What we know:
Blueprint: E1 2-5, E2 9-13, E3 20-22, E4 37-39, E5 45-51, E6 61-71, E7 78-84, E8 90-95, E9 107-111, E10 122-129, E11 136-147, E12 162-166, E13 196-203, E14 214-218, E15 228-232, E16 242-248, E17 266-274, E18 281-292, E19 298-304, E20 309-315, E21 317-327, H1 329-332, E22 338-345, E23 354-366, E24 370-373, E25 380-384, E26 390-394, E27 397-400
Parallel strand pairs: 24-27
Antiparallel strand pairs: 1-2, 2-3, 4-11, 5-10, 6-9, 6-11, 7-8, 7-10, 12-20, 13-23, 14-17, 15-16, 17-22, 18-21, 18-23, 19-20, 19-22, 25-26
Amino acid sequence: MISILLSFASFTLTSQAVSTQVETTPLVLCKPFASKQPIPDDGRWLRVCLSSFPVPEGAIIARVHVKYLIEHPDPNQLEVFLSRDEVGLGQPLWEHGKSPPGTTFGKAPGLTAFAGAPASENWYLWIRDTMPGGSGWLKEASLAVDYAPLPVPDSYKGPPPVPAFRLPPGFRPSSTPDRDPPKAERGAVNPSSSSGWQEIKRETFEGVFPNSRWVVWDGNPDDGLEYFWDDDDCRPHWGSWAAWPANGGVNGYDPCATRFYRPNMSSWMVYGPFDASNAQVVEGSFWLWRQIEPNYDKVWFAFSNDGVNFYGWSWDGTAGWEEKRLDLSPWLAGDASVWVGWVFISDSSIQYEGPWVDDILIRKYVPGQVTIRGTVLQLIVIYFTPWGETNDRLLPVSTTHDS
């Protein structure tokens, strides 16, 4: 057991999660790790601030993924430790050649030491060289957090959403103009009737993008670069165009020429607000192709009731074109002002081609009024949902009586 006393914190390192006592001295907000830093060779700790994306209040941590790249002649001399703000918990990542089960030197996915704790934006990676004579460098470091899912009704089918993002105060969408050649503007979708299935938005990216009610922006202004979603003709699902997260913005580029996304991305495209106040069912579907580093980079489909706090589902890894179809009804149906969006995030290292999104359809089911002549006690209609199940639904009924 090793005890370390610092000016503002004390840690007791063991092979398990440990408690910490942290002073209430305010700490600055973290920013993405940007440049390599020397590891002191005199036994002092190097503390690096890591950031996780802001999430809605009340989010609860499920797992933490940490990745770091250290250049050192003898890693067995090192101790590496993870801590965070406001919670007396910490996790040793490397102790003289030993690491927690399921982890290795440089990569610690799926840590559960912080499970059940509230979300925090500030995390700290501590590194110490316990023996003089061999200097080293921390070259890269990043962190990603998975959160506990939202509660869902017993009748809900499919994976539950999780807290995803919270927009920062003072947020403004990008004003960078689209560089694509002109394309025909597609007309708005108008419901053909006052009841039944109604299309809210169908987006194939074959027309002008972004069009009405779409907003795109770069959520990471700290790197001095601007990348966000835009339509490109390199890998469409259907037709000639699909959306890719680094094609737009001042520094956007052609994925056909450079098939790698950029580090430290936070690329957003959001549609809304739209009205679901008369909806009984709200559904979002789209096609997704992806080649994304597992655990640390993700593409999200998310929804919001206020345009600030977003909840949703994420994907990583590699897969060809797949249709994603999500039931948004428990959170959006009955609300007069809601949003949906796609977000891509990446860390500082390891980039692939990323995600492509195409053939988006947002729609709602509006129940109709049924009029029956005669005396009716109740009317139960059995109908098929978009996901193949059947449901019994008591519909509003008005009656008239024959004289």
